[in-house]
Automatic annotation (TrEMBL):
It comes from the Bacteria. It holds the Pfam family DUF1256. InterPro entries: Pept_HybD-like_dom_sf, YyaC. One of its GO terms (molecular function) is peptidase activity. Transmembrane segments: none annotated. One of its GO terms (biological process) is proteolysis. The gene is yyaC. Keywords: Hydrolase, Protease. This is Spore protease YyaC. The keyword Acyltransferase does not apply.
């Protein structure tokens, strides 16, 4: 059964709420020894769609055994290379657990909210792109309103909203890793 949790980014404990929710999903994964892949989707060429690469950029220092981050400002994962990255992930890791992160559009009241679901996300849905669904769980930050002219809406999204969501999501992910896995290792796992 699919579960959807909406987290208000204006809440004082939003990072802790996100941390605890992510930890609940990844704790059994970590115990089983499955590799954990954090897939940050988006492009740095559009303010509204830069959430994923910004989260990846903030997580690039994350050095933990069996945790791997794909997508950042230098090497974004976007519509043109998504399938290639998915193929790479599945050919590199045995039964990876994928946390997919992307921006999304929603209602005016939901701007600034974070959605966590135990189902794949559909990247590019706002732009009517036919991309493969990806993720065992998905985290989306609602950056602006949907309803028409999505390309223009994404291009005219406030950077403040995107940066705030990127800070909260990256901290929630980072602290969920600390909570479930613990200390640093010496190898870099950023792709």
């Amino acid at each position: 059964m699919h579960k959807k949790e909406i987290i208000n980014s204006n809440s004082n404990n939003c990072i802790n709420t996100l941390r605890d929710s992510i930890s609940n999903y990844i704790k059994p994964v970590v115990k089983s020894g499955r590799p954990l892949v954090i897939l940050c989707i988006g492009t740095d060429r559009s303010t509204g769609d830069s959430l994923g690469p910004l989260v990846g950029e903030k997580l690039k220092f994350l050095d933990r055994d069996n945790v791997f981050v794909y997508g950042n400002l230098k090497t974004p994962v976007h519509s043109k290379n998504l399938q290639e990255n998915i193929n790479l992930i599945y050919s590199t890791y045995n039964n990876p657990f994928i946390v997919a992160i992307d921006a999304s559009l929603g209602s005016l009241q939901s701007i600034g909210s974070i959605s966590l679901q135990n189902k794949p996300l559909r990247p590019g849905a706002a732009m009517n792109k036919d991309l493969p669904p990806i993720g065992d769980i998905s985290i989306t930050g609602i950056v602006n309103i949907s309803g028409g002219l999505e390309f223009m809406v994404l291009q005219n999204t406030r950077l403040y909203v995107v940066m705030r969501l990127a800070d909260i999501i990256s901290k929630g992910v980072y602290h969920s890793i600390i909570k479930t896995i613990g200390g640093k290792n010496t190898a870099s796992n950023v792709i």
